[in-house]
Specification:
The protein contains no helices and 11 strands. The chain is mainly β. The strands form 2 sheets. Strands 2, 4, 5, 6, 9, 10 and 11 form a 7-stranded mixed sheet that branches. A hairpin with a 4-residue loop joins β7 and β8. The chain is globular. The protein starts with a strand and ends with a strand. 33% of the residues are buried.
């Protein structure tokens, strides 16, 4: 049973930077996809960035040029560096994982963290 724990959320001023970390425990996950999603109040959960087991990364349009996702398989950890943050980035950010390739469909992810709040003001 894979468990995901996010950390690094908090408050930041618009234009600032924040870094999130997701650590996986349980069965090793080095062959699966890891992903970041976010959900603002009253809105659907949306994909932010995903990273394949080999490190190939994809970023949603909302974060292209501003966000960078990466992972360290040896540490079972994924990171999200968020720069030039905007007010609309304010949301709960979730780490997710699945066995298989990456996509941005929330329904395809088997494992979820509890989330970490990011507030931009």
């Amino acid at each position: 049973h894979v468990q995901l724990v996010e950390s690094g959320g908090g408050s930041v001023q618009a234009g600032g930077s924040l870094s999130l970390t997701c650590t996986a425990s349980g069965p090793t996950y080095e062959r699966g996809c890891m992903a970041w999603f976010r959900q603002a109040p009253g809105k659907e959960r949306e994909g932010v960035a995903v990273v394949e087991a080999d490190g190939t990364a994809y970023h949603a349009d909302s974060g292209k040029g501003r966000f960078t996702v990466s992972r360290d398989n040896a540490k079972n950890t994924m990171y999200l560096q968020m720069n030039k943050q905007k007010d609309e980035d304010t949301s709960m950010h979730y780490c997710a994982a699945r066995y298989g390739g990456c996509n941005f469909r929330t329904s395809d992810y088997n494992y979820w963290g509890q989330g970490t709040q990011v507030t931009v003001s």
